[in-house]
Fold Peroxiredoxin.
Amino acid sequence: MQAESRNLVILMTKGIDSELSSVAFTIANGGLTAGLKVSVFLTSSAIDLVRRGGQQFTHVPPLDPLAALIADFQSHGGVIWACPPCVKARGYEQADLLDGVVIVGASAMHAEIKTGAATLSF
């Protein structure tokens, strides 16, 4: 029997125009509260969620504003990874992204999955 994983990886492809971004970060924060190590891998338009100021455009009541959800996630140890080609395709550089966001390839996500991390996608 395999040991229970304490890791969760959330793959996000939806951006500031989708309520799913707020739902995903709400679930990510819940994972941290439950004691999981949570990593979020952003691809496609989800990159705009961590562009400086981008998260200010999304609020899905009754959930907290997206900016607050992301700040809470990061302040409680959540890890945010941004897909390098997706960042580049939008003309962004590291300085355009929120502090703490790591531009890294999918291999970081795969490493977590290989050790038994649970996965969710939005």
Notes: The chain has a mean pLDDT of 94. The radius of gyration is 14 Å. Residues 7-121 form a domain with the Hypothetical Protein Ychn; Chain: A, fold (CATH 3.40.1260.10). The helical segments are 19-33, 66-75, 84-89, 107-114.
